[in-house]
Amino acid sequence: MQKTKLKIGGMSCQHCVKTVTDALTELEGVQRAKVNLRKGEAIVRFNALRITSTDLRDAITEAGFKVL
Question: Could you give the 3-state DSSP secondary structure of residue 38?
């Protein structure tokens, strides 16, 4: 498993946190996603053989948020 930290812009409430968490955890290969509103970041554990960090960034962008 690989772990990455992604800075996320545009989150303003717990609904945003849930939206980003759901977008990440729905991806095949993501084991865990912990999204922190106050820090504006997500820490994601994923299987690098099944998914890339670009896929993670794309999922966040498609959910309506910016990866900084």
Answer: coil
CATH code for residues 2-67: 3.30.70.100
Give per-residue pLDDT as tens, 48-63: 999 999 999 999 999 9
In this structure, the dihedral spanned by the alpha carbons of residues 32, 37, 38 and 43, taken in order and rounded to 10 degrees, is 20
pTM score:
0.95
Give Cβ neighbours of residue 52 (< 8 Å, ≥ 6 apart).
none
> How is residue 46 written in tokens?
């994923």
Domain boundaries, given as residue ranges, for the chain: 2-67
Report residue 27 as tokens: 């991806």
47 phi, psi to nearest 5 deg: -90, 110
